[in-house]
Design a protein that fits this description.
- By secondary structure, this protein is mainly alpha-helical.
- The protein has 2 domains: about 80 residues, no CATH class; about 45 residues, no CATH class.
- It contains 6 helices and 3 strands.
- The N and C termini lie far apart (about 35 Å).
């Protein structure tokens, strides 16, 4: 059983970008068997695999092979809560990366990143 989870609000940026690309939220939810009622409680957590499936299906439905990259380019840092602000207020890229690695466990219960020895 895979216990890796992420906050349900991670779905919003995917669905919003997909909608801007002409993909209806309902079609995306149905394609990955996601219950949108989960979005009503920001404390809900969903399997990390579901978010991966959303990215993959949104790429397929939108015809954008670089969908994930385009979501990342369009996302505002405040979409990442405290992590976004920590990264935004870092003096260097190294410091931003180090903060992101340290904060990862607060935002998701996902596998450890390889080689987490990042120095500010």
């Amino acid at each position: 059983m895979n216990a890796f989870t992420i906050q349900v609000k991670a779905v919003k940026k995917i669905v919003d970008f997909a909608a801007a690309s002409g993909v209806r939220a309902e079609d995306l939810y149905e394609a990955v068997e996601f219950d949108p009622r989960l979005l009503t409680d920001p404390d809900n957590r969903i399997p990390f695999r579901l978010v991966v499936n959303l990215y993959e299906k949104a790429a397929q439905l939108s015809g954008d092979d670089n969908f994930g990259l385009h979501v990342g380019l369009s996302a505002k840092l405040n979409a990442f809560d405290v992590l976004g602000y920590a990264v935004l207020n870092s003096a260097t890229l190294g410091e931003a990366c180090a903060r992101a690695v340290r904060a990862r466990d607060c935002l998701s219960h996902t596998p450890a990143l390889p080689n987490q020895k990042i120095r500010p």
